[in-house]
Amino acid sequence: MPEVQKYIEYASGYLDLKMYEDAMREADKALALAPDLPQAIVIKSAALCQANRLSEAEPFMAQLAELNPRDSAIWINLAYIRRRTQSVDAAVDTLQRAFDANPQDALAHYNMACYRAVQHRQQEAIELLQNALHLDPKLKALAKAEPDFAGLRELPAFQKLLGSRGLPSGASR
Questions:
Q1: Is the pLDDT at 97 greater than 60, yes or no?
Q2: CA–CA dist 107, 94 (Å, integer)
Q3: Does CATH number 3.10.20.30 belong to domain 71-173?
Q4: pLDDT, tens digit, for every residue of 116-129?
Q5: What burial letters (b/e) apply to 33-52, b meaning 16+ CB within 10 Å?
């Protein structure tokens, strides 16, 4: 469908230029012709997210996740949206799908550690963070500054895991 591809190209270009309304308009044209076209759904959800319209982005990201149930990155993004638009519990439920898609996804472990820390489930948070760091040691730098881990910073297990002592309690990105 050349017409659909034209809309996708325009939408992608507008998204690159941070012209979110124009990107959404072109993505909508593509979706009118092909409602399950992943590229159009990605652009529409990305434009809405980047415009900080997370509630509107949620159904598109959910549709994309259902179309790609084995893609843990999509479930992670959907969990992020649901944490901000619904609740941490909704994010946890959604993030479980990322684990189902790929149990070895370091970012799934990391994000679940964040959610468990916010829920004051410290031991689970530390275990999940340990798994994340085992899968991807580069996440250590991110973890040191993660605001969600503020309640864990004084715990010896957390300090040992990150190989640091006396991290600032207000460390943030």
A1: yes
A2: 14
A3: no
A4: 999 999 999 999 99
A5: ebeebebbbbbbbbbbbeee
pTM, entire model: 0.86
* CA angle centred on 75, ends 72 and 79, rounded to 5°: 140
Coil, strand or helix: which one is 98?
Answer: helix
- Residue/partner pairs of 62-68 with CB below 8 Å, 24 or more apart: 63/36, 64/38, 65/97, 67/36, 67/38, 67/41, 68/38
Integer Cα distance of 44 and 35 in angstroms: 12
* Residue 117 in tokens: 């820390």
List the structure tokens of 157. Answer: 């297990």
pLDDT tens for each residue of 25-60: 999 999 999 999 999 999 999 999 999 999 999 999
> Which one is the CATH code of 1-67: 3.90.226.10, 3.40.50.10490, 1.25.40.10, 3.30.420.10?
1.25.40.10
Give dist(CA 62, CA 50) in Å, integer: 17
